Every structure is written in C-alpha cells, then in structure tokens.
Hints:
Strand content: 25-35%
Radius of gyration: 15 Å
Largest sheet: 3 strands, antiparallel
Number of strands: 6
Helix content: 25-40%
Number of helices: 4
Shape: globular
CATH architecture: 2-Layer Sandwich
CATH topology: NE0471 N-terminal domain-like
CATH class: Alpha Beta
Amino acid sequence: MPDRAPPPPVPTELTLKRNRRELGIVFADGLSAVLSAQFLRVHSPSAEVTGHGAGEGVLVTDKENVAIERIDPVGRYAVRLVFDDGHDTGLYTWPILHEFCRDRERKWQRYLARLAERGRAHSAEE
C-alpha cells in the first residue's frame, strides 16, 4: 500500500493585529509567524497577482499602508482576506499560509529585489 502524504498543517489561531496591518498565525505543527498585510497583499494567491502562466506573476506595488478589513472563512481549508484597497480575490489555503510563514523572509527579499530591478524604492519596513 502506498504511503499517504501527511495532512496539510492547520492553523489553530488567526489573529488580526495592530490596526489590522498584521495577521498572527499559529499552526498545529508549532510554526507561527506574524505576516504584514502588505506581505499578504503583494503575495496574494489570486490570479490577478500570480498571473495565468509560468513566472513570478504581477509585481504589486504601493501597498505599504494596506490593511486587512476582515477574514472570511472558506470551508475548513482556507480564508479569504478582504483588504481595504478593495482586493478580495484569491484563497489563502492552509498550505499557502504555512509556506508564507515558513518562507516569509526569502519571499520578502525576492519581492524587494524585484522592486529594485524595476527601479522602485520601498519605504515600509517588513
């Protein structure tokens, strides 16, 4: 009988923090992180951001002051984040959020490098 993949990690806590500009996440496997609304917005899993083909997708800019208005649960596998800039597409599944928590620094540094490649300055601190 083939081995089954382990179930995806499930968050035990999602908390909006600091005037809704941060999301605290704690997973059942012990991984935890605080992700900024800006990080979550520029890394949205929506087709609008990820694109429809291979590659890194759209470079989202000017979101230093974005906030999360609300978190909408989607079944037992994801949440939809509604941002104050009107963006509300893309499902943040548990595996995506786990990856964001695990790889936040690497993903953020790649985002800053992409901004620099386009000659864009970044003023907010992540």
